[in-house]
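Structure first, sequence second, as always.
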């Protein structure tokens, strides 16, 4: 279970905020992060935050490769919530794993940022080479498919021509390949 106790330290005498002993953090309004993402920095910001998140996951879990996926996911969800990025849950669509991020304060600009954050985090904790593809928003929820890079490329192409993501994911075989792709 994710334990947030002691995760954030406020040193008011020095004016510092730290997450589990990391270098100082800065609390910024979500709309400022949105502006940075809209200004073209979404990839860089998401990847940098993903690296930081991966470091905390490895420190907490040790060997993340041999941890049950549920444990790693629970810790990842806790870290995203702690960062104020929303509530993460998991869905299965056929053989595909889909992360659903609810109530993300970044709105529609979050797609590139969250893709970069998730793929960087997962790759850096050793969850093998993979890709993350934004499947879009529905209400307050944004969905991200976690796939092998070749399958992700095929999925992106099909999404660009208007095919429905749920039908495409349902067509994935357990080996991560797609039928007729």
């Amino acid at each position: 279970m994710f334990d947030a106790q002691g995760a954030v330290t406020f040193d008011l005498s020095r004016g510092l905020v730290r997450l589990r002993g990391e270098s100082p953090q800065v609390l910024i309004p979500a709309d400022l992060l949105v502006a940075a993402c809209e200004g073209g920095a979404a990839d860089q910001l998401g990847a940098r935050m993903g690296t930081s998140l991966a470091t905390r996951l490895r420190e907490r879990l040790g060997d993340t490769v041999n941890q049950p996926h549920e444990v790693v996911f629970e810790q990842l969800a806790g870290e995203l919530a702690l960062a104020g990025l929303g509530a993460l849950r998991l869905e299965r669509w056929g053989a595909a794993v889909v992360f659903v991020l609810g109530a993300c304060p970044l709105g529609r600009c979050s797609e590139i940022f969250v893709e970069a954050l998730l793929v960087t985090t997962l790759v850096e904790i050793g969850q093998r080479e993979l890709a993350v593809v934004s499947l879009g928003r529905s209400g307050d929820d944004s969905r991200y498919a976690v796939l092998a890079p070749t399958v992700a490329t095929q999925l992106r192409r099909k999404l660009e021509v208007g095919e429905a993501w749920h039908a495409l994911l349902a067509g994935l075989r357990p080996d991560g390949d797609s039928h007729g792709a």
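Margin note: The chain has one domain: 29-170.
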